[in-house]
Amino acid sequence: GNSTSSSLVWNVEETRAALREATSQLGRRGLKLAAKWAAEQVVGLPPPRLGACGTSQVESGEEMVSSSSGGTSSNDLELHARTLLECGEYRAASSTLSGPPVNPSGNTAAAAA
Predict the structure, then answer these.
(1) Residues 23, 73, 59, 26, Cα dihedral to 10°
(2) Contact residues for 34 (Cβ-Cβ < 8 A; gap 6+)
(3) How many CA atoms within 13 Å lie on the side-chain side of 28?
(4) What is the DSSP letter of 46?
(5) How far apart are CA 65 and CA 92, in angstroms?
(6) All residues at 6 or more sequence positions from 105 whose CB lies less than 8 Å from its CB, including other chains
């Protein structure tokens, strides 16, 4: 085995939380494009798999990481839309908020029908 592969394991929920915080801080500092990038990364992260007791489990390499926070939420979409508005991308912000709903498997409701 290669020891570098074990160092590449990452926790998706920790990454999601860090990107949410970065989006807020960058926005407060007026770094609009950087905030937009961070918000795009949040909504692009894989959704967690639901485990027992309503907690989410995110596969992280070979281990399972449990977390009580969810995946891409409407708050994440609103955060992304806000960054788009601040960049003057009004149509993209509208599309983000009015797009087809996403079910837990990550497929759009229209595609599932």
Answers:
(1) 0
(2) 26
(3) 6
(4) P
(5) 33
(6) 112
The residue behind tokens 């990481």 is 65
Length of the chain: 113
Residue whose structure tokens are 């601040």? 86
Give the amino acid at 5: S
Q: What is the pLDDT along the chain (113 residues), one digit of tens a residue?
A: 555 556 677 899 999 999 999 999 999 999 999 999 999 999 999 887 665 454 444 444 433 333 334 456 889 999 999 999 999 999 999 999 997 655 555 555 555 44
Per-residue DSSP letters for 69-103?
Answer: S-SS-HHHHHHHHHHHHHTT-HHHHHHHHHSPPB-
Nearest to 67 by CA among 105, 11, 19: 11
Q: 108 in helix, strand or coil?
A: strand
Residue appearing with tokens 């797009």: 99
CA–CA distances in Å: residue 10 to residues 15, 16, 58, 89: 8, 11, 10, 32
